[in-house]
Amino acid sequence: MLIGKPPDIPSSEFTPKRAYEAFINRRRFLRGAAATGAVALGADRIASVFDPHARVLADTTKLQTVSSPLTTTGEQLTSLEDITHYNNYYEFGVNKGDPAKNAHALPTLPWSVKIEGKVAKPLTFDIDSLLKLRPLEDRVYRHRCVEAWSLVVPWIGYSLSELIKECQPLSSAKFVQFLSYYNRGVEGAWAYQTDIAWPYSEGLRMDEAMNPLAMLTFGLYGQTLPNQDGAPVRVVLPWKYGFKSAKSIVKIRFVEKMPHTTWNDEAPNEYGFYSNVNPNVDHPRWSQKTERRIGLPFYEQRRTTLMFNGYGDQVAYLYKGMDLRKNF
Amino acid sequence: MHRRTLLTLKTLTWLACLTPLLWLLWGAFTNDLGPDPTHTITFATGRTTLRLIMLTLAITPLRRLWPKLSWLIKFRRLLGLFAFFYASLHMLTWVALYNGFSPASMAADIVKRRFVTAGMTAYLLLVPLAATSTNWAIRKMGGKRWNRLHKLIYVTAVCAIIHYWWGVKPGVLTPIGMTAILTLLFLARPALAWKQKRKARAVTV
Question: What ipTM was estimated for this complex?
Fold first, then answer.
């Protein structure tokens, strides 16, 4: 490889933890100030004007978590600031900084997820029952965007398969479709910077959805998801390009045929249904051999992209015998 | 225009043209180029190039509209050369930050990716324009031939806009502003020529 760093960093470089702790402490302090009623108008709100970090998590709460064997080790975490200010969430604008500015409009409470289609139990879960369904795990995953940039995110959630088991899909259910929140009155102005037919739709083959790496995600960095990162519940599929990981999910449909997916509708030659991270299949407009790690100086960003984003051991079997150039 | 005023205006133009570069250098120095510095640099240099090309293209219609502004011509070369300068920086980011100076990687990029092909065409067409920007070159070529050659800027502008459209995701409409301005600048030329002709006819009659 001519360019790019090896993907794994020795764990000695692990986590800007001090920064994170300082940040959590500041949150605690702010909460304390608000609780003592020192500032009756809400210290959080006032502080948030001066402190972008506080603003990011202004509406989030801390989550109780357990550790997970499925976590990725040896990677330096991307800062909370970057994870929350470098987002693709086109319903809230097409620029990376737009969702952080606009996603506060997303009404995350009350929230429910409707299960539909070929299942024995077409249940509707409110967000609290989903949070309590299984213990919430801390899982660090690499996140590789199809645009050739990447992050390392400490997500919180549990395997999507746990929810699927609860719904008891029928044998005729071959695919799962995820539909994101969309309300013209809420996102309309921003969402029409594109000609996408909302709501956002994504999907997986049933066996992909049952893979333990596929994660139903509720939080990051110890807290519930900030809106721009897909609050209150999303999926995270670390071996696929980021757009497969649908945000702010309101419906999960079990279906017989491959569901339509938003970016595939927009440009079928650029975004396939599978969209597994694959350095050997270029995007028509750029190479996928390397990626830019977010949050580093420009001369240190470039690194090699790994097959299945480095999760081949866990997921390669799903695609045995498939031509991944055709099924990109 | 007084020599003094001209000098002041030129200095201000220089400063204005250098601002995007200074902003990038300051950002690189303080490690404050946003979450994706490579993209920030690419976009800032590309956008500045397009803006400067638009400015050079705005000078002729403005002079035709308001003959009092005919002194604007004295700034066109400066703006054009700065456009070339930022286009070169834009190229350099592609060569260094995207391709790690690898000729094979660059060649593959140009052949495979139409938005790179369009961008490269736009840049290569700017080179002869920059090279013939001196008074000596104008004299040597003769005004007519020089003018004909420099019509290439229209092709560059169109290629650059296509490069922008092909570079963003399908369905994303952000290049629409620049496209509208460029269309206006293109349409202004025949429109103003027609107006002038009509005026001239009115005078002769």
Answer: 0.74
